[in-house]
Amino acid sequence: MALLDVEDLQIAVAKGRVLLPVVQGVSFSVDADETLGIVGESGCGKSLTSLAIMGLLDGTAVRITGGTIRFDGMDLGALSPKERRAIMGNRMAMIFQEPMTSLNPVYRVGDQIVENLRQHRDLSKRAARDRAVELLDLVRIPDPGQRIDSFPHQMSGGQRQRVMIAMALSCDPKLLIADEPTTALDVTVQKEVLDLMADLQKRMGTAIVLISHDLGVIAETCDKVSVMYRGRVAEAAPTAELFARLAHPYTRGLLNSIPVVDHDVEWLEAIPGRVPTIDEQLTGCAFHPRCPLATDLCSQTAPDPLQIAPAHRVECHFAEKVVT
Amino acid sequence: MSDPLLQVRDLCTHFTTRQPGLRAVKKVIRAVDGISFDINPGEVLSLVGESGCGKSTVGRTLTRLEKSTSGSVLFEGREILDLSPGAFRPLRRDIQMIFQDPFASLNPRLTIAQTLGEPLFIHGLATSWAEANVKIAETLELVGMDPKIMTRHPHEFSGGQRQRIGIARVMILKPKLVIADEAVSALDVSIQAQVLNLIKRLQRDSGVAMLFISHDLGVVRHISDRVAVMLAGKIVEVGTKMQIFEDPAHAYTRKLLSAIPRVAQRAGAA
């Protein structure tokens, strides 16, 4: 059984009296030592999915309306808040996108790491502080014995992101969810942070869910990928298989939209139109208004998931045509 | 070759900060520290570098949103740094800026027609709304928007659409130099490709010169004729697109290029 198993997850946003579905039947699983990438554009539901796993949806305006999330055999939805708190930040941890707003600006970074450690581990203040210094050293913050007493504003963006990683790793989590962990960082720092995460995974066998809008980051770091569009997994496959045989027109469009550094392209093959807003009603396939292959079938009937190779699943009526 | 449209020589923009507290210490930040480059008519020069390297300050200094410390900037052979604000004002039509954040750079209380009409009246390019509306409709078509949206407000549009409106506001003045500061960075990948294609097409069709400021080397390769790489307030390398991407000379340029995560394979036509 996989470490994390998400099945048929449904999330809705309450707008007045109506519930608008924003995540519709998302399923995936992650094993120890494995990195799953979730890629998609804003509004596709990737961040809500990660917040749902961490139990951070508020339950009123945004709520889970169906499906199960199983972690290490436990149904997370069935846990009491207290049981949940014992897991979060401990066996399961999250790195947020914005290191400036996710650290508390009025506490020293060391105290914030120590707080989490002492919450979950029976450690003296002294021992927790020593462990925090070790962690800062682990994420390669220079001079950790000194920097532990810094405030977040005294650090650079890359260093703050490392502190976030150190905090997430403080209790040796089995599962790490990283929501756009490098989006706010420069490319050279991004490389260091991604290398660091890969290195830690190798040493500790952590399972990672990496959420990103950047196909390059996903291609270089993940074992398997789920491509999300408007609350659904449009395509999912092992990374090598996905890029060798793209089967969904959206994945293909996304890839062709990226201007590459290694050769010249006169005009980018942009995907026309825009991502529909959540209150727009759509019948059939959610991508059909922007799809070059769309027919009447696509606007009327939503495609069923199609298995085109072992572990390669795609939701498109014309997947076989796309892949050739 | 004709004379450069813009000649920047030894430009410095320094900021002085004071540490708060009793023993206030003055600190000088050399955001732009002696840079020189030319932009020829019709050419796209990109300024690339990481956050804090001073690339945005260059753009803001050229449009006089920041005050330069020393150096010279010749626009069509004429020094612009020591012009009085009144004497510089007519040049604001010729030197226009596209901003990064499509949510912050449009006035939420103005309709699209008011947003695009205002610069026309300020620079005396229209004397009546009837005249302005014709130009506004033309320009909206040019950026791929339906002219019927004129009466609507910015909140009704998505990020990509707002950026198109921001580009329309610039192009409606027929400027000679456009400074685009991270103009596509805030957009989703699929929308970024649309807007990037649009900027490239408008630049080619109008022949406007452009200073394209960006941290994204893929985007830079797509749009530029020449590229200048900035590090800590200085230009470390400048060259044609081919030189910079195929045969980078400076170690920092090579480091930047090697740090970019890549998708090994590109999809063929669907």
Number of domains of chain B: 1
Low-confidence stretches of chain A: none
Order of helices and strands of chain B: EEEHEEHEHHHEHEHEEHH
**Share of residues in strands of chain B:** 25-35%
User: Which structural class fits the helix and strand makeup of chain B?
Assistant: alpha/beta
Mean pLDDT of chain B: 89
Radius of gyration of chain B: 20 Å
Which stretches of chain B are poorly predicted, pLDDT < 50 over at least 5 residues? Answer: 265-270
Molecular shape of chain B:
globular
At the fourth CATH level, what is the homologous superfamily of chain B? P-loop containing nucleotide triphosphate hydrolases
| Global geometry of chain A | globular
Estimate the helix proportion of chain B, in percent.
25-40%
* Largest sheet properties of chain A: 8 strands, mixed
Tell how many strands the DSSP assignment of chain B holds: 10
> What portion of the residues of chain A fall into strands of 2 or more residues?
15-25%
How many distinct beta strands of chain A?
12
The major pleated sheet of chain B works out as: 6 strands, mixed
Q: How many individual domains of chain A?
A: 2
CATH homologous superfamily identity of the largest domain in chain A? P-loop containing nucleotide triphosphate hydrolases
